[in-house]
Amino acid sequence: MKPLEEAKMKCGLEIHVQIDTKSKLFCSCPTNYLDVEPNTNVCPICLGLPGAKPMAPNKRAVEIAIMVARMLGCKIITDKEIYFQRKHYDYPDLPSGYQRTSTPIGVDGEFLGIGIEEVHLEEDPGQYNPSLGLVDYNRSGTPLIEIVTKPDIKSPEEARAFLKNLMTLFRYLGSLRGEGTMRADVNISINYMGVQGERVEVKNINSIKGVYKVLKYELIRQKNIIKRGGKVKRETRAFLESQMITKSMRAKETAEDYRYIPDPDIQPIIITEDWLRKIEEEMPETPLEKKKRFIEEYGVNEKDAEVLVSDLDMAELFEKVVKALGKEDVDLAVTWIRNELRRSLQYHKVDLYESGIKPEHMVELIKLIKDEVISQKIAKDLVDELVINRGKKTPKEIVEEKGLKVIKDTNFLEKAVEEAIKNNPKAVEDYLSGKKEALNFLMGQVMKITKGRAEPRRVIELLKKKLDN
Ligand SMILES: [Zn+2]
């Protein structure tokens, strides 16, 4: 039997994330909807009351949208007016009956090999709780950025990597609220056994993991339909997170269903070249630019640079440490930050920004290692200690407190070496008969006796001196 061929998947994403402005998109109500009682950050505009006229679009929100579009390599629309349209649909969280959504601010970008169709602004609706029948309009009118990709994504893994990197990019930019406020719609179609399925849309997925699960699930569901000789039909589906499956909602709506019309109450936006230049000057370095700079400026290898810049806090910590120590210690900084600190943070499930660990801690640690005050083994434990006590004690304090300094006393070390030799005659015999690796075993025993406070180099010297005679 012929093995089943792989399905070819085509996926595009529409990603919404809140923009972190103080006030809403078309009124001056605050956007901190999580911190206040329901329906307190509201006014006639964001409640959509008849006759209420929106204010001019929040300038900061427009500027952030322009920055996002630029960071995604989009061409900014400067040669024509950008206006807000009314997108009509009926839902309890949308009292006006339409959502305001802008025409594209940027188009034709590319990020990590995935084409970006367009970037535009939208207003968030309120929050409806169907089981209680209650609506909270605090969120209504909060600015959202929407990013629409081209259908260039070919696997669930690629979608996940794209979104993770997009969230990192948002962290670099600041001013965006990140994955916690993300809602994504995914489009997916497959070509399988020579049959092209229609495009299925899954709406309102609110985590990167959710997007990954949806794509995995749809891939299998659509393959099974085709395998049975059926047709994948064009439709919109919902993601049931609790069961990790998707469920049919309705036949796909088209643009006509939304009856888009320009909002006559809102002045169009014109992005002038001057304004654009000013915004570009304010733009922070992107992860890709930082990676390039780490490679060129500090001689970090590509893989290490990539890992470092994937976490903005780690990249910044690294750079401060290197600046304090000097460029000759770049390798030590990479080892102790990119490898050891990262390992410990992951093991203890702590993010760097909440770990309390500052550049000074790592500078001090690396100096202790360089000056041979502590052994490598102890230094690793010390990194864990720093993470566990959230940087409340400095490396020096921990070393003093726990007596972790390297043993320089030769007598003491010699005694430890003698003990290891006495207790392990088999290893000694192996070594003497030419099995050099037995020496590492003996060194391990000495380390045990000294609780890791011996310098391996000196232990090897002493072992050889005793055994080779
Ligand atoms: Zn308002």
TrEMBL record:
One of its GO terms (biological process) is translation. Its EC number is 6.3.5.-. PROSITE patterns: GATB (PS01234). It comes from the Archaea. It is an enzyme of class 6 (ligase). Residues 316-467 form the Asn/Gln amidotransferase domain. One of its GO terms (molecular function) is glutaminyl-tRNA synthase (glutamine-hydrolyzing) activity. It holds the Pfam family GatB_Yqey. Keywords: ATP-binding, Ligase, Nucleotide-binding, Protein biosynthesis. It catalyses: L-glutamyl-tRNA(Gln) + L-glutamine + ATP + H2O = L-glutaminyl-tRNA(Gln) + L-glutamate + ADP + phosphate + H(+); L-aspartyl-tRNA(Asn) + L-glutamine + ATP + H2O = L-asparaginyl-tRNA(Asn) + L-glutamate + ADP + phosphate + 2 H(+). The keyword Transmembrane helix does not apply. Heterotrimer of A, B and C subunits. Belongs to the GatB/GatE family. GatB subfamily. This is Aspartyl/glutamyl-tRNA(Asn/Gln) amidotransferase subunit B. It comes from Methanocaldococcus infernus (strain DSM 11812 / JCM 15783 / ME). The gene is gatB.
